[in-house]
Design goal:
5 helices, three-stranded parallel sheet, two-stranded parallel sheet, globular, 51% helix, alpha/beta, single chain, Rossmann fold
């Protein structure tokens, strides 16, 4: 059986390169272009909003799920480079799961509102957290820490 996402009619907007460009290349390039100017400030912050699917993927979106750990890895590596350079720029990750958006409206349960997600990210930004867990992301982290296999099984079935 051919996986759902490879079917031509599965998603008319699906394009692997385009999805990677939007979810990874765009934020990475924008950050790269802005970083020299941000480094000249007294203090600056870059907040990359990353799905909690960067921690564990789901079955139904392989390319989307691949783009999220790529962006998370970029953020972590860049954070180390910026710190080593002594630049006054904090690289932060907002990891969110189950946010009620136009894209997710007909999928899943237990979602938080976009406003609640934004509020939690802004709270983490104000506190200077490197990794900001939004909604159920902290619970997912805990499950993955206690039982990685269970966490992966829970997420892969979504």
């Amino acid at each position: 059986m051919i996986p759902d996402w490879t079917e031509p009619d599965a998603d008319a907007a699906f394009d692997t390169a385009q999805e990677m460009a939007v979810n990874f290349v765009g934020p990475a390039e924008l950050t790269r272009l802005l970083l020299p100017d941000l480094a000249r400030e007294q203090s600056a912050q870059v907040v990359l909003v990353i799905s909690g699917l960067a921690l564990a993927p789901k079955r139904s979106s392989p390319v989307y799920c691949a783009s999220k750990p790529a962006l998370r890895s970029f953020a972590k590596s860049l954070r180390a480079q910026v710190q080593e350079a002594g630049w006054p720029v904090l690289i932060q990750e907002g990891l969110q799961l189950l946010v009620d958006t136009d894209t997710t409206r007909r999928r899943g349960k237990g979602k938080i509102s976009e406003a609640a997600a934004a509020s939690q990210i802004l709270d983490g930004v104000a506190k200077g957290r490197a990794a900001i867990d939004v909604g159920a992301t902290a619970l997912l982290r805990l499950i993955l820490r206690l039982s990685p296999g269970l966490g992966e099984r829970i997420m892969i079935g979504r």
